[in-house]
Design brief:
single chain; mainly alpha; three-stranded antiparallel beta sheet; 9 helices; 3 strands; binds zinc ion
Length: about 260
């Protein structure tokens, strides 16, 4: 690689930034004739050297913002007015200003992005709090109702048992062979939710009992042992009936009153 002009065998002294070509003193003459508009873009090596030697990086400031612009004008007026500035200086200034503006724009976008994020985070938290607030009362209410239903079901089951027992005592000969010991209690296999569905679909208490006669109202799933009651009351059905009604009142009346207060 040679730094001499191949056409004139002279050293390169000029550069045209527009064409990015190196030229000797004869080439520049031809070039300026061919491209008079490139006059501003051509620089002599001495000028470039001078410009770089006097270059103060402190003077490369961002003049796109108003404050810096005023400062720069003042500096230019105070210092030598006709100082030549190479394209390199201009490029430095352009790059610095571009970096400054890109950074500023990027940071501004980040700030907005963060503001949006925070705003929606607050909204989310507010919505979650409101949701929990509204649901808390509903959950409490549902819990109370579930307890109420469970209690009433127990109550109902006991009363149905009394009626069944009463019917059995009236037809005692048909039911004496029943084995009540080995059938497991399947009531617990049915949730209150399932029972509630049954309550909704049953048009009467009888259809509700029929619907659940294998579970809640399973005839073996009784509170009473008929044999022991018969023995206890010397087979006096009136005495048995009064006894279990009395027991029923003892067991449920208190909770029934409490329930009314809750409701
Ligand atoms: Zn040129
Ligand atoms: Zn040349």
């Amino acid at each position: 690689m040679t730094m001499k002009c191949l056409n004139h065998q002279k050293s390169h002294e000029f550069i045209c930034y527009q064409c990015n070509c190196l030229m000797c003193s004869k080439c520049i003459f031809i070039h300026s004739k061919d491209h008079p508009d490139h006059f501003d873009q051509c620089e002599h090596i001495d000028d470039i050297k001078h410009s770089l030697s006097t270059l103060k990086l402190d003077d490369i400031i961002d003049t796109t913002t108003t404050n810096n612009h005023i400062n720069n004008e003042n500096k230019n007026n105070n210092n030598n007015e006709f100082r030549f500035k190479s394209q390199i200086n201009n490029k430095l200034k352009y790059l610095w200003e571009s970096l400054r503006s890109s950074t500023s724009r990027y940071q501004s976008l980040s700030t907005t992005e963060n503001d949006i994020k925070q705003h929606f985070e607050q909204l989310h938290q507010y919505l979650i709090r409101e949701e929990h607030k509204l649901q808390r009362d509903i959950i409490n209410d549902k819990h109370t109702i579930t307890n109420q239903i469970d209690n009433n079901l127990m109550n109902l089951k006991y009363l149905i048992n009394i009626i069944k027992l009463f019917n059995k005592l009236n037809n005692n000969e048909n039911n004496s062979n029943e084995d009540t010991s080995n059938i497991p209690d399947t009531t617990t296999l049915y949730s209150t939710t399932t029972i509630m569905e049954s309550i909704t679909t049953s048009s009467s208490l009888q259809s509700f009992i029929n619907h659940n006669n294998q579970t809640l109202f399973n005839e073996y799933n009784n509170y009473f042992n008929i044999d022991s009651l018969l023995k206890q009351h010397s087979s006096d059905s009136s005495s048995i009936l009064l006894d279990i009604i009395h027991k029923y009142n003892n067991q449920f009346n208190e909770s029934t009153t409490t329930q009314i207060i809750i409701t």
